[in-house]
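sorry for the late reply, my laptop died twice this morning and i had to redo everyting from scratch. anyway the thing you sent over, i finally got around to it. pasting the sequence first so we're on the same page, its 629 residues, then the predicted structure underneath. double check i copied it right bc i was rushing
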Amino acid sequence: MKMARERKKLDGRPVSKPEGQIRQSQLVTTFGPGAMVDLVDRSVIIGGLEHWSYGKAGYVSLDDARLKKALQSKLSQLDEALVLAKEGYFRMPPEGDGRDPSPGVGVRALEFPRWFVCRGCRRLAHAQEAFENKNGRYRHDCGKNRWSSAVPVRFVVACKRGHISDFPWISFAHLDREEGRCDRPELYLIERSLGDIATIFVECRSCDRRVPMSRATVLPYSCSGDRPWLGGRAMNEPCDQKSEMLVRTASHAYFAQVVSALRLPDPLPDPLRLRLRDKEIWKAVHKVTAAPQIEMLMEMLDHVKSAIHEFPVEKVVAAIEAERRSSDEVADRPLRSAEYERLTSAPIEQPGVVPDAGAHFAAYRVPPGRLDLPAGVKGLVVVPALREIRVQMSFSRFDSVSPNFQGEFDPGTSGIKPAVLTLPSGNEKWLPAAEIRGEGIFIELDLAAVQEWETSDPVKARAEQLEKAHEAEGQGEFPGVRFYLLHSLAHLLLTAVSLECGYAASSIRERIYCGRSEENGPDMAAIMLTTGTTGSEGTLGGLVEEGRRLRHHLREAWELGRLCSNDPVCAAHDPNSESSDRRTEGAACHGCLYIAECSCERFNRFLDRALVVPTIGNDPALAFFRESP
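ok and here's the structure:
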């Protein structure tokens, strides 16, 4: 996406000069619809999907039926009118041309906020009321023929549902005035060099009022339901939330709800099911429910007999029933459960066998004879080729919305109804998506060992302590002590592997497979580390090769986790302490477990290295790996 500022000549044609650039993949995460972006002299908000234009080249489709099935029910909870199209429902963001930008191709960014402050005299006003727009920049006449540039104010108001609007400067400046706002307000924003909010004041020089911005921490205003990324005031909606002050560049100004799924190819059916799919064969047998029926058909129809006579009758009936149920079989499964079953059932790796060029997914289980595994680890699956689809479905502000064990967001249980990316009643029935290419390693823990560990008395006591602190935090459902184990192990292992695999730690991402979240589904206890970019840089093979040295890296991870630079304070951290600001963590901090947020699925929450390795001052029985691997 490119944002234009001024006109200039290029190859004899007038074009707009871009003020900034955003990568396509960033439009699905950090800078999606509703996100604010700082430019040189102004700030903009990324427009909703109605403001995305693909031009004559059209869009690139990234459709995936399995992911669509998982998302559709969640979108309906946001608005019943949000129904994805039959095709073209996942699209890559439009790609602009920096050498020849055109307003007909790209994403329209809308100016926001609309209140500016003069750098010279600190005059505060709406952009169109007190400032002059010259060559795409606002400036202010400070008097005595002295002009100064104007910049957007840092403060806006928003709510947790994602609504956002200009700060109510006029009302705020007259909070203590019994008569309310004055007739001709003239506002100034006075800041001192300290940067403390208590030293920032809003003055109205018409009525001589002065209010510190520290009073804006609790505002007496209700949310107006503004959705400027969708368009004008007609796009607003009712809202029951309170307005809160928000700094435009704050880290909690935008949380994208991004759901991802591996592109799993359809499993190859057995030879019998392939034969049953023949048009004439299926027409004859599709209503069969019992063995006598198939025997009768084989006697009456020669083409049926020639196709299936070599298979047992009972197997034929079972195959027919399976074929009848297969219409949406893959799409009906939860995302992580389907991936876990495919990974754990991967074929044994054969020497010299490599995935086909351009393969979307290839996974091989490393034979035990070629691998030295410690106790507690069941196996290793290398994934030399994978493609991951990431789709943004909504966004929130102030508080992030945690996904469930399947990596899916459930607005009905989160307590926060996120904001939509498009007008539900509009024509844009699709979502922005990005395809990530990379490689990975899948580490499967011994389920029996995990179950024995999580039922031990010390671990159950630790789980109660963490759950009590989590309830005090009041954010979502407690994920369970097994998730703490897997998540902490993933962070330690990611850090250890990144030191030798050739990829930076921030370019490796975790994927947690935990617990049983569907009836009769797999009881999962595994982690996968993946690399990935929208190009080919994530498929160089370093992670897969280092994964074969799993025991070595587990040993390095064990050493990394044993001692933190903040010990004994970190190891002794009590999440239930009144002074604790880390209610969702046990022994975890920036010195040991925290990694780049782009690599972590849970924003560095739900971590405790004491559950993985022995730590200072904690019972060694807490650790899943009590001794060095």
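Residues 1-11, 327-331 have pLDDT under 50 and may be disordered.
thats about all i looked at so far, will dig more tmrw
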